[in-house]
């Protein structure tokens, strides 16, 4: 599909002088392979209704990019000249969301089509506009300056994400050489990458995500500033970071994303304690543990099995927790006290560097604490533990630990593997055997005075 378009594009470039970046290449329907059968019926419905109401309506972003790459789009995004309130009037199932970006979400059961009004990068009078607000560091805090289609192109992130499919005549519009970059598997920021990263540091994480997911290389101009400006990701609010973590680590390309995050020195900014362990004498063990967690998550995504972010973050921070626990043990704390103290310490340290939501912290802590509970197997404890809502995650975590862990962890994992498949009788027997094997601790009789 792309080869055909580019053959056409070669001609079009000569004809239109595409060196001037603001002259769009417009590819007619018969010259590109985007067919309406590739577009979800919900997105088509939204596009048609906007068009029939007299508005411009385009499919843009990942929907167009992925169809051209003959991949299955995750979702479909629509761009229009209709204002959010005008969109809302057209659709009963519409909700307006976002403060930073005002967007319309059109709900079709579990599916959402996101409709964004064309935006401009800067208003005519930026200093006094209440619609575009920057922080002192140049970060965009609010961006609701509406503009034209052309304005909208230049506020998007990468060239491959700025291709517009026009529902009015089914043409494809390319202002920024996105088609050529798709053909050469190149991720390229629109405009000055340094400035665009300062405006929104999440774009650095998006670069990693698309490079990992699409197996694209990042153009030199787009990749170089990441090394210099990576620290800005620390300023991203925790809710946005959480969204991005979900996309980075739970979309089936977590392992590739991890490799790239490390390559671009972003991983150490997001998880400094983990990075320190990855550079310690135990680096091989730590890296294998994390990679196992990531590849396992990727496999589960492809098998359509549930995956959870707390699990992965618990894995990222597991070795920092172990190292801290050892430090506390050396200071004379008991195993259990050191473990609990280290849990709190590591989560606090992580929060100091990059904010993670309270719910996420809670989820991570729960998985860790259940690791301690998995060791206590007397009486009814194992049975009660099996009924815990996070048991499965904790058990999977134990299996993961066993791969790189010591003999005790491996034996514990084997015991649980057998326990969960056993019937009631077998389970009771396992507890009995354990009781005989375990050394008995007798309480010292109280001294009588
Ligand atoms: P996918 O949905 O497959 O993850 P996508 O490219 O559609 O990829 P979305 O997050 O859905 O990504 O965003 C839709 C489009 O909005 C993008 O393609 C891009 O054009 C634009 N966009 C999203 N986030 C940003 C950003 N931080 N800066 C500039 N443009 C952005
Ligand atoms: Mg999308």
Structure description:
The chain has a domain at 21-184: Beta Polymerase, domain 2. By secondary structure, the protein is an alpha+beta fold. The protein has 22 helices and 12 strands. The chain has an 8-stranded mixed β-sheet. A two-stranded antiparallel sheet has the order 7-8. Strands 11-12 form a two-stranded parallel ribbon. Helix 8 crosses helix 11 (254-263), helix 15 crosses helix 18 (358-375) and helix 18 (358-375) crosses helix 20 (391-404). Adenosine-5'-triphosphate (ATP) is lined by residues 61-62, 74-75, 77, 156-157, 161-162, 200, 202-203, 247.
Topology:
Elements lengths: L1 H15 L8 E3 L13 H12 L4 E4 L1 H7 L8 E4 L3 H7 L3 E4 L5 E6 L2 E7 L14 E3 L5 E4 L5 H6 L8 E4 L5 E3 L3 H6 L2 E2 L5 H7 L2 H13 L2 E2 L1 H10 L8 H12 L4 H10 L3 H4 L1 H7 L4 H20 L6 H8 L1 H13 L4 H19 L4 H18 L5 H6 L4 H14 L2 H15 L2 H14 L12
Parallel strand pairs: 3-6, 11-12
Antiparallel strand pairs: 1-10, 2-3, 2-9, 4-5, 5-6, 7-8, 9-10
Helix pairs in contact: 7-9, 8-10, 8-11, 13-16, 14-20, 15-18, 16-17, 17-18, 18-20, 20-21
The site of adenosine-5'-triphosphate (ATP) has 13 residues, from α8.
What would a concise description of this structure say?
The chain is an alpha+beta fold and 449 residues long. The chain is built from 22 helices and twelve strands. The chain has a domain at 21-184: Beta Polymerase, domain 2, CATH 3.30.460.10.
């Amino acid at each position: 599909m792309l080869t055909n378009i580019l053959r056409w594009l070669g001609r079009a470039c000569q004809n239109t002088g595409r060196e001037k970046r603001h002259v769009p290449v417009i590819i007619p329907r018969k010259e590109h392979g985007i067919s309406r059968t590739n577009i979800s019926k919900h997105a088509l419905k939204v596009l048609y209704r906007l068009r029939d109401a007299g508005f411009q309506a385009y499919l843009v972003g990942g929907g167009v990019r992925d169809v051209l790459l003959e991949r299955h789009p995750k979702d479909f995004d629509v761009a229009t000249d209709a204002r959010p309130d005008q969109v809302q009037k057209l659709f009963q199932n519409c909700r307006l969301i976002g403060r930073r970006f005002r967007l319309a979400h059109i709900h079709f059961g579990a599916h959402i089509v996101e409709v964004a009004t064309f935006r401009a990068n800067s208003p005519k009078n930026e200093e006094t506009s209440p619609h575009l607000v920057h922080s002192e560091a140049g970060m965009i805090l609010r961006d609701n300056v509406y503009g034209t289609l052309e304005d909208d192109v230049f506020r998007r992130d990468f060239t491959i994400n700025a291709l517009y499919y026009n529902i009015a005549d089914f043409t494809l519009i390319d202002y920024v050489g996105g088609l050529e970059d798709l053909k050469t598997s190149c991720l390229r920021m629109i405009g000055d990458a340094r400035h665009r990263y300062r405006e929104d540091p999440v774009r650095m994480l998006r670069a990693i995500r698309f490079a990992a997911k699409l197996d694209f290389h990042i153009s030199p101009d787009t990749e170089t500033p990441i090394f210099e400006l990576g620290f800005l990701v620390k300023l991203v609010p925790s809710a946005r970071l959480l969204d991005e973590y979900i996309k980075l680590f739970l979309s089936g390309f977590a392992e590739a994303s991890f490799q790239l995050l490390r390559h671009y020195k972003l991983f150490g900014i997001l998880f400094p304690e983990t990075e320190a362990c990855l550079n310690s004498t135990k680096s091989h063990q730590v890296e294998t543990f994390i990679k196992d967690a990531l590849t396992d998550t990727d496999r589960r995504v492809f098998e359509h099995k549930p995956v959870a972010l707390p699990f992965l973050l618990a894995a990222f921070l597991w070795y920092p927790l172990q190292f801290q626990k050892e430090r506390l043990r050396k200071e004379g704390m008991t195993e259990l006290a050191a473990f609990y103290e280290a849990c709190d310490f590591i989560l606090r340290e992580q929060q100091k560097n990059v904010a993670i939501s309270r719910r996420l912290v809670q989820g991570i802590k729960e998985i860790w604490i259940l690791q301690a509970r998995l060791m206590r197997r007397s009486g009814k404890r194992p049975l009660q533990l099996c009924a815990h809502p996070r048991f499965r995650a904790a058990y999977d975590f134990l299996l993961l630990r066993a791969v790189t862990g010591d003999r005790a962890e491996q034996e514990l994992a084997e015991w649980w593997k057998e326990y969960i498949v056993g019937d009631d009788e077998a389970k009771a027997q396992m507890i009995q055997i354990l009781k005989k094997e375990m050394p008995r601790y007798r309480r010292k009789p109280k001294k009588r005075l």
